[in-house]
């Protein structure tokens, strides 16, 4: 067709390779992670220190013999100077030794490892549900109301979404239990017995976030649809499916995932509550019981783990986003 | 803005709910307190009835009364927690603005780190320390609210601090603390208060959550969360005992949250990420106008003037475009483009040329009304509204190059794949085969290392390369017409020349006709063979490029040419301009739309819009008094002024 006739003379000669922004980016994120971990570990350590009165006495109750209390105090190292305790605590955390439960005398690691899988599954399913639900809902609302069509739908969507967004997860939990289990007896409401028991808890967790995130996705979609590259895609006369799916979606995804990443922390917290609503054995129900029973080593360790997990997940989301949208990396540096 | 959103209603509902809540706080306990405590063991777990709207609990106490009576405690705890969170947050946020750079950074890092933690985990941590009970719950929830509130205050303060009056205060030597108190705080008070309102809602819901988990209020005291916990335990026997408190929590939580949102302006809508969408969405909605009709557009006969020719690649007659609200950016335009022809469409910004280009490419979206009497592309007749039946035709034979190359390639797709797409969709070619074709086209438009470049994303390309990639994209089919909308405007001068030369080569070697939209007369003169001059939505002159400088018949065309700066133009003074300004497209004058700016205009010009008629077989003009001599249209004495693009543009 067109043949090459003259060598290029403008500045389009292959660009000189810029220094990769990755090392700096990774270094900054690791530093932030490290800082976060220090804060989390310190806070977890402080739990035992800040308890008004003697935590062991509080945990074992007023009837426990003095010898037992002293023995436990020694075991927890509460009689050492605070800095020594702090150093020991770090040593224990780094070697994966979280002590034993004051109440059940089981190793904390045993308690946690028996339940962590349940919680991780629930969070993962809820996140997937949130992202899929919000993107589907937000995009289709944007598509249906594009060019000022169906204004009533847009108004309805805004009102419903902002309302549903502020309803807390335990309320959804109670409502779902009522509707599905009490009124219709369709789905199991308690325990962890395979896939069906995951449906209601993950719905309870994700309904609110779906409502919130879908509003953001809608606005993003409207913005993306107004871009020239969408017009360029239309000029190629592609099907709407291809325009929305192939040309618009990837450009929304970054925003959706960024907020999704931020929501992950919220999802983890919701899990704590929802596990209690549906009586699922997991870290959430464990930590609540531990706090009620003043089982400090367990409470401390689970909170440490959840906090650490949130930090690591944030890092992963950041890195994933940068892989997905290399431009953000350049902006970041 | 209020018109487009049921905001008024939301506001009334919120106020009503808040008044109801205040009422319950004050009178809830006195009215229902006794009943709430009355034990009636015989009536334990009673169902909902006339006497007990929401049934009774395990001791036969009335659930409805208990929910009403506990309003005060529930709200009081929420207020306390919100006070801690808002007070602490504002203190930290303001402190950050007032303190020196070191502490500012330190606090900033701390806020960032603590924002990463979900509030509930912080609350649980505090609860673990302080033990279960209302004290731990309130302090925990309060502390958890500090980081987001600090960040919000800080963001608001920073934006207020960036304003000019604060800068002025600084220049006058007003101290940081003083500036904060006198100038910044008063300006951020409203959004802060509204967000505080939402914080109360959040606290209420969170404390109820803690009570619900058994960590907050302990029996025999009770709040909504605790009632809910009890209700859930017995939900099978007695669902209303769970649903009652749920209603209370949801309504109260909603009242505070929606009130914060409903009374907020854009500025205060960014505290929680979940609210991010609102401001933007509103601004978008505010721009929208109700759809109008095209019926009002008068039809003219001047399309008859266009000579019929069998071999035209594009033949359009009586094309009209109307935007909602009555604006008519394109009025009764007739255009004919022959194969291999290089035609220019010129005019000021706002003359409707970009809209016309999009309409010719059948790319205007549903928000504008497009209609025509005849539309024939590559021998195929296209009926108005039936553009989508000709996907393959337009997709393969009509290429469009847009103005802004930084934005016309999809940033999320590799360039090669974007090009290859057309082959896959319209020719059913395989992935690999079409990718190879894409690389070939990139080579054709002289992108060095096309093999490697095809695998890159648009942001790795320079502006000139992107524009050439766009042209290459158009060449993936077998274009008969290439519509280029200001393809060089966003590029610097040397790159402009390359892109134009490329278009020229494409035209010569493939025989593709080119319609170049531009406001740059010099580009037009060097590239095209025929020029269409557009003014206020109509074509006013259709003239061979060769005659443009010397034989233009329309006063507007002459003025355009005279306004082009040449080598003798004084660079120090302002540029010459055409006196007056183009008419508003939504309120066009009755006669010739250029009459108001035309020195030769007389009565007929002000009453009759002239039709496009021949001066000679290759030259058409729409003017009652076409010019013949060499005399240019007088320009305004150089005043302030503008590149054509400084004028308001409704179309570009």
The first-to-last residue Cα distance of chain A is 43 Å
The Rg value of chain B, from CA coordinates, equals: 35 Å
Structural class of chain A: mainly alpha
Q: Report the helical percentage of chain B.
A: 40-55%
Point out poorly predicted stretches of chain A. Answer: 1-16
Describe the largest sheet of chain A: none
3D shape of chain B: elongated
Tell me, briefly, the overall form of chain A. globular
Radius of gyration of chain A: 26 Å
Note the total helix count of chain A. Answer: 13
Main β-sheet, spatial strand arrangement of chain B: 7-8-9-3-10-11-13-12
Strand content of chain A: under 5%
Characteristics of this structure?
A: 333 residues; 75% helix; disordered N terminus; B: alpha/beta; 8-stranded mixed sheet; 5-stranded antiparallel sheet; 23 helices; 13 strands; disordered C terminus
């Amino acid at each position: 067709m067109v043949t090459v006739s003259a060598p290029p003379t403008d500045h389009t000669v292959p660009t000189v390779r810029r220094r990769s922004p990755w090392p700096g980016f990774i270094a900054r994120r690791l530093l932030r992670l490290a800082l976060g971990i220090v804060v989390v570990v310190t806070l977890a350590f402080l739990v035992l220190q800040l308890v008004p009165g003697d935590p062991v006495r509080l945990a074992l109750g007023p009837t426990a013999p003095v010898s037992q209390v002293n023995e436990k105090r020694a075991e927890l190292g509460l009689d050492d100077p605070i800095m020594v305790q702090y150093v020991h605590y770090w040593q224990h955390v780094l070697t994966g030794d979280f002590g034993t439960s004051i109440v059940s005398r089981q190793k904390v690691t045993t308690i946690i490892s028996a339940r962590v899988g349940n919680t991780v599954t629930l969070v993962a399913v809820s996140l997937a549900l949130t992202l899929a639900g919000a993107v589907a809902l937000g995009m289709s609302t944007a598509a249906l109301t594009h060019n000022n069509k169906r204004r009533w739908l847009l108004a309805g969507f805004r009102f419903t979404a902002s309302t549903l967004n502020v309803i807390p997860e335990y309320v959804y939990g109670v409502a779902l239990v009522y509707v599905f289990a009490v009124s219709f007896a369709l789905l199991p409401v308690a325990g962890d017995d395979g896939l069906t028991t995951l449906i209601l808890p993950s719905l309870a967790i994700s309904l609110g976030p779906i409502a919130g995130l879908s509003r953001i996705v809608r606005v993003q979609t409207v913005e993306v649809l107004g871009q020239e590259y969408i017009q360029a895609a239309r000029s190629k006369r592609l099907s709407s499916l291809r325009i929305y799916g192939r040309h618009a979606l990837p450009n929304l995804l970054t925003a959706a995932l960024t907020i999704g990443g931020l929501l992950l922390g919220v999802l983890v917290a919701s899990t704590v509550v929802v596990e209690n609503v549906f009586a699922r054995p997991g870290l959430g129900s464990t930590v609540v019981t531990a706090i009620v029973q003043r089982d400090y080593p367990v409470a401390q360790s689970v909170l440490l783990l959840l906090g650490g997990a949130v930090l690591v997940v944030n890092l992963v989301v950041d890195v994933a986003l940068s892989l997905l949208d290399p431009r953000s990396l350049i902006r970041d540096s | 803005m209020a018109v487009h959103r049921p905001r008024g209603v939301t506001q009334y509902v919120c106020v009503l709910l808040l008044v109801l809540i205040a009422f319950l706080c004050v009178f809830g306990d006195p009215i229902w307190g006794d009943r709430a405590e009355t034990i009636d063991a015989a009536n334990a777990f009673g169902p909902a009835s006339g006497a007990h709207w929401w049934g009774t609990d395990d001791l036969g106490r009335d659930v409805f009364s208990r929910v009403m009576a506990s309003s005060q405690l529930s709200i009081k705890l929420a207020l306390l927690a919100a006070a801690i969170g808002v007070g602490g947050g504002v203190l930290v946020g303001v402190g950050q603005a007032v303190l020196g750079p070191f502490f500012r950074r330190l606090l900033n890092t701390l806020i960032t780190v603590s924002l990463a933690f979900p509030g509930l985990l912080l609350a649980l941590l505090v609860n673990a320390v302080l033990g279960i009970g209302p004290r731990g719950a309130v302090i925990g929830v309060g502390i958890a609210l500090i980081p987001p509130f600090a960040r919000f205050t800080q963001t608001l303060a920073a934006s207020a601090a960036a304003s000019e009056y604060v800068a002025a205060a600084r220049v006058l030597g007003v101290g940081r603390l003083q500036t904060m108190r006198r100038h910044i705080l008063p300006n951020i008070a409203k959004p802060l208060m509204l967000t505080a309102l939402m914080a109360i809602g959040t606290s209420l819901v969170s404390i109820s959550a803690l009570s619900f988990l058994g960590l907050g209020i302990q029996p025999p005291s009770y709040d909504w969360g605790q009632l809910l916990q009890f209700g859930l335990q017995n939900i099978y026997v007695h669902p209303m005992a769970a649903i009652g408190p749920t209603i209370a929590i949801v309504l109260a939580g909603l009242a505070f949250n929606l009130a914060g949102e409903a009374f907020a302006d854009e500025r205060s809508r960014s505290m929680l990420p979940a609210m991010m969408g609102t401001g933007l969405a509103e601004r978008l909605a505010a721009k929208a106008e109700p759809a109008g009709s095209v019926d009002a557009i008068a039809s003219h006969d001047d399309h008859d003037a266009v000579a019929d020719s069998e071999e035209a690649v594009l033949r359009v007659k009586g094309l009209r475009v109307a935007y909602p609200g009555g604006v008519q950016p394109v009025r009764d335009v007739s255009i004919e483009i022959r194969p291999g022809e290089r035609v220019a469409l010129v005019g000021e910004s706002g003359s409707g040329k970009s809209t016309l280009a999009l309409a010719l490419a059948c790319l205007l979206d549903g928000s504008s009304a497009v209609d025509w009497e005849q539309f024939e592309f590559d021998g195929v007749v296209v009926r108005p509204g039936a553009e989508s039946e000709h996907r393959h035709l337009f997709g393969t034979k009509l290429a469009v190059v847009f103005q802004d190359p930084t934005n016309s390639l999809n940033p999320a797709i590799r360039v090669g794949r974007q090009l290859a797409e057309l082959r896959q969709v319209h020719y059913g070619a395989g992935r690999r085969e079409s990718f190879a074709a894409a690389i070939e086209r990139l080579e054709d438009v002289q992108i060095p290392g096309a093999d490697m470049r095809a695998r890159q994303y648009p942001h790795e390309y320079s502006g000139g390369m992107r524009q050439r990639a766009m042209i290459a994209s158009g060449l993936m089919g077998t274009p008969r017409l290439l519509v280029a909308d200001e393809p060089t405007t966003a590029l610097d001068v040397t790159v402009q020349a390359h892109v134009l030369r490329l278009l020229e080569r494409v035209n010569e070697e493939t025989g593709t006709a080119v319609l170049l939209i531009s406001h740059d007369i010099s580009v037009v003169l060097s590239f095209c063979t025929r020029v269409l001059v557009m003014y206020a939505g109509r074509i006013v002159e259709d003239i061979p490029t060769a005659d443009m400088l010397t034989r233009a018949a329309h006063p507007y065309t002459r003025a355009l040419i005279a306004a082009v700066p040449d080598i003798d133009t004084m660079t120090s003074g302002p540029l010459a301009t055409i006196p007056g300004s183009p008419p508003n497209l939504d309120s066009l004058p009755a006669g010739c739309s250029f009459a108001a700016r035309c020195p030769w205009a007389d009565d007929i010009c002000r009453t009759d819009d002239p039709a496009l008629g021949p001066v000679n077989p290759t030259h058409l003009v729409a003017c009652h008094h076409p010019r013949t001599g060499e005399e240019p249209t007088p320009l305004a004495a150089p005043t302030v002024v503008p590149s054509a693009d400084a004028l308001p543009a409704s179309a570009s």
